[in-house]
Input
Amino acid sequence: MRFGPRKFAVVAAIALAAGAVGGPTAAADRDHGLPLGPRGLPETRTVETLQPGVTLTTIVRGESDPADGWTVEVAVPGGGDDPDPDPDAPPTAVADRAHADALAGALSGSGFAARVEDVATPAVADFAGGSLGFRVRIGLDADKAAANALLTRVRAAGFTASAVFTGWDGASTDRGPWRVQVLTIDPKKFRGDLVGDFGPDIERRETTSVLARARNATAGVNAGFFVLDPAAGAPGDPAGLGVYDGRLLSESTNGRPVFTFTADARHAGVDRYSWTGKVSGRGTTLPLDGINRVPGLVRNCGGTHDDRPTSHPLHDTTCTDPDELVAFTADYGTETPSGPGVEAVLDRQGRVTEVREPRGGALPAGARSVQGTGNDAAAVRAMAVPGARLAVSGHLTDERGRPARIPQMAANGGPELVRDGRPHVTPQADGMVRPGDPSFYYGWAAKRNPRTIAGVDGHGRIMLATVDGRAVDSLGLSIAESAAVADSLGMESAVNLDGGGSTTMVVDDKVINHPSDATGERPVGDAILVLP
Output
């Protein structure tokens, strides 16, 4: 039976009390509120009980800052275009001083008073920070309409530009405001189930609210990164490890962090895994490249040694490999991907029941398949004799290379935010630092964006937090700020999940945050749901 919410009064003393969120393990600075903006900013916290062992804490900090306003940021010529369209992908906004000065000169020649600004970012665990480069901006106005009018003139003059709010830059002096919402699941009191859910199949996207409604969930948040553009794979496919009720249905982005948890919420943490798989039969064993994804396309990279341009994680990049073996389960969708190559369909016992060439088609209930493309098509053709048995298997290793058990639930993420109770941000290891492309780090990590965070506090309580952003009434967080907030909330370990327009929190069948996409709530790949 679902409990009705019980609201607690909001007063400053309670808002900043050690017990409000996170318990006594939280950082000492918590007595001053969230570590955002100057100390002494107004901050309120409201706590609601959603069901036994589950609370929702809403934190509002800060106030509008008159020093912030709308400006026109001009793209610097000479930057590369992202080959994988993504509404969260940042523009080419940062370049070296020479290119920035040349752009400012061109703008001046067109009658615009441009300024060149150095973009600095703090050091984190595996990235030195410092100056990323220089951006070029024009004007500063409290009125967005005035900035848009200037933007129209800049574009008419032949420049690529956008209107941005300076409060999204990430300056430590900004006064806010920020809106943070935290679901806390206490395993000592929780009697429901905590699950990862991708909907009716992997290849299609659903909104977090639709996923929550289908499971009669008390609450939920969006979860891992996923394929968005059909040119990068099947939209909705997790772009990293996906484990649901003990079933590994999407391979890992090798070495990147994931949030793992059990249905009873008694065990949770941030782990790093690598995956290897194989298919064996007729005296031959072949390595698998992936599970339940379009062959040849590896979103976020981190795959096998023959992937291009890299086998290391590279965020929001689609690596390619023309010669692949990919295994499928019926969870993938109504039909497996079609195209050149060979597909062996297997029954529940692993016997080959059909060989398709070209590949693609529906799978019978309980069936699996293996697709081979490029040079690997011949290997499948030779192995897949009707009636022959093929064994498909895979296993995980931890970050030390030791065999690891498949977790009950896992959602992919990155970068890591908190380790052993201290901020530990790893954008370099997790592929958010692109060589020769400072604009990506600037827009994705250094600037403030909506964020979704998962972690565990010192009492073993699971925390799922969303932070609204890309708005003037909630600025969002940089990645470094995300780590500081997670730490201040008492998380002993934490990881960044998919954010931007994906960031969504649902409670009692209602979206309670403010998703940033202009079209409203974004369909996502999967969600973490709190069931009664």
The first strand starts at residue 6 and ends at 7. The radius of gyration is 24 Å. The chain has a mean pLDDT of 93. Residues 153 and 229 are 31 Å apart (CA to CA).
